[in-house]
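Input structure tokens:
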């Protein structure tokens, strides 16, 4: 076997994978955005059913308050 630049001829040379830096940056940015969105969903998100239930509870409380309101008649 011949010595070629410090390597023996016929030996397998492992090469690194070629990476497009623009694509890698976009992928990393997308990944960070996904993580931030997940954190925001945990902190602020409510399901549609939870929002509807809260709206229904608020409407019911307002109706109950209006039913118990004492209206004073103007006596002028």
């Amino acid at each position: 076997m011949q010595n070629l630049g410090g390597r023996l001829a016929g030996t397998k040379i492992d090469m690194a994978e070629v990476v497009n830096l623009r694509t890698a940056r976009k992928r990393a940015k997308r990944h960070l955005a996904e993580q931030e969105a997940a954190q925001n969903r945990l902190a602020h998100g409510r399901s549609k059913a939870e929002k509807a239930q809260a709206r229904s509870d608020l409407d019911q409380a307002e109706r109950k308050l209006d039913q118990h309101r004492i209206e004073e008649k103007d006596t002028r």
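The longest strand covers residues 3-4. The two ends are 118 Å apart (CA to CA).
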